[in-house]
Design a protein that fits this description.
This protein is of the alpha+beta class. It is about 50% helix and about 15% strand. It has a 5-stranded mixed beta sheet. A hairpin with a 2-residue loop joins β4 and β5. The radius of gyration is 16 Å and the shape is globular.
């Protein structure tokens, strides 16, 4: 499996182990995994782990693509992971509402991040950001993935660990 570097990175480029996550902001399982992923990152940040987050908004989730666009638009101003965390934290507020209501929520979350509002609103419909998300989707589909979240360690797909200790074992093995 060859994974591109076309994602958002937490951690250093010189990390020995890369955990790649393909996720959908509207996916309840992705939301449930987020605290686990954050804990793993915290525990391994000085031991050579980095996370690469990639978008895989599922078509069955009606607001997932616009959530990804909102995160990318915020990312264009350097605060992607702040928005990433907010979208999971507040998933219940926007996941089941109309597209217009969801968009209003995303705009209010972004406003709380003290961004250039005009740039953010312009970027919400920026073709290049949409193409980046589509490229992430194409990449994950071409690697035979159909669900979220899906994790890879150093380019190898793993079974989703259900506990912190299972996650840690996989990372420890990769670090050796």
């Amino acid at each position: 499996v060859t994974l591109s570097d076309n994602g958002w990175v937490r951690g250093t480029d010189s990390a020995k182990v890369t955990l790649t996550e393909f996720a959908d902001f509207q996916c309840p399982a992705c939301k449930a995994y987020n605290p686990l992923v954050l804990e793993v990152l915290k525990n391994y940040q000085d031991k050579g782990l980095r996370l690469v987050f990639k978008h895989f908004p599922l078509t069955s989730h009606k607001n997932a693509f616009s959530a990804a666009m909102a995160a990318e638009a915020v990312g264009a101003q350097g605060k992607f992971f702040e928005m990433h965390d907010i979208l999971y934290e507040k998933q219940d507020e926007w996941a089941q509402v109309s597209a217009i209501e969801a968009q209003e929520k995303f705009i209010s979350y972004a406003a709380g991040l003290k961004l250039d509002k005009e740039k953010f609103l312009k970027d919400l419909s920026e073709k290049a950001l949409e193409e980046k998300i589509r490229a992430n989707q194409d990449e994950v589909i071409s690697n035979g993935v159909s669900g979220t979240p899906t994790f890879f360690i150093n380019g190898k797909k793993i079974e989703n660990p259900s506990t912190l200790s299972q996650f840690s074992k996989l990372i420890d093995k990769a670090l050796k």
